[in-house]
Specification:
Layout: E1 8-18, E2 21-28, E3 40-43, E4 46-56, E5 59-66, H1 68-73, E6 84-88, E7 108-118, E8 124-130, H2 133-136, E9 144-147, E10 150-157, E11 161-166, H3 168-173, E12 184-189, H4 191-201, H5 205-216
Antiparallel strand pairs: 1-2, 1-6, 2-5, 3-4, 3-6, 4-5, 7-8, 7-12, 8-11, 9-10, 9-12, 10-11
Length: about 220
């Protein structure tokens, strides 16, 4: 489980394609003591398993395996050596939940269609993505969404687009600072909305009537 608060960015240093799967090596300034073999790490919002790590100067490199299903569902086919990625280690019970509950299980991808710079005392940027209709139904104004692993607030949404208002700090510490029109991004919708939808799907007319009666009482 993650929170969508990015700790570092890393750089992809090696890619080994294995059939429809892949192994990625990523360099970062984290010391080697930051990892354990088999633990999870979110890379651009994707929950992946550390299979190897080693020291690299004052930082480190680590490797992650990606299954064919993970590659197919995410933006991994677009990844190249030299690409920067957002990194977050898993949440512990002693951490503050600064973003929202993020599982690292990507629901689909969106594509950047517009970038608007905001001027003024606090300059920022509004990034608009085109998203699949099956994801758009989970978006609500001022709701939460994870995009490339970053916990963000929905600025605006409709049946096919999602707009995000990014403050200078987010642009500085994540890969949003260098995103361009045409870039694809990983999207994980708010898991609470998915549970509510599932619950409502299985309700019978009798269940709904009982809920109405309980509410009136």
């Amino acid at each position: 489980m993650f929170t969508g608060i990015i700790e570092r960015t890393g750089t992809i240093t090696q890619i080994e394609r294995k059939g429809e799967g892949a192994v990625f090596e990523i360099a970062t300034d984290w010391p080697p003591s930051s990892y354990q073999i088999g633990e999870s790490i979110a890379v651009n919002g994707i929950c992946l398993t550390v299979v190897h790590f080693e020291a690299d100067g004052e930082g480190s490199r680590f490797r992650i395996d990606a299954s064919p299903e993970t590659v197919q569902r995410t933006t991994m086919p677009d990844w190249e050596v030299g690409r920067r990625v957002n990194l977050e280690r898993p949440l512990s019970l002693s951490h503050l939940l600064g973003g929202h509950l993020v599982t690292g299980h990507i629901d689909g991808c969106g594509r950047v269609v517009r970038i608007e710079e905001e001027e003024g005392p606090m300059p920022g940027r509004i990034v608009t993505l085109e998203i699949p209709r099956e994801l758009a139904r989970y978006m609500i104004f001022k709701g939460s969404v994870a995009v490339d692993g970053v916990s963000l607030t929905v600025h605006a949404c409709d049946a096919s687009t999602l707009a995000l208002n990014l403050v200078p700090h987010t642009l500085e510490v994540t890969t949003f600072g260098t995103c361009r029109v045409g870039d694809r991004m990983n999207i994980e919708v708010d898991i609470i909305g998915k549970y509510v939808e599932k619950f409502l799907h299985w309700l019978t007319p009798e269940d709904l009537e009982r809920l109405r009666q309980d509410r009136s009482d």
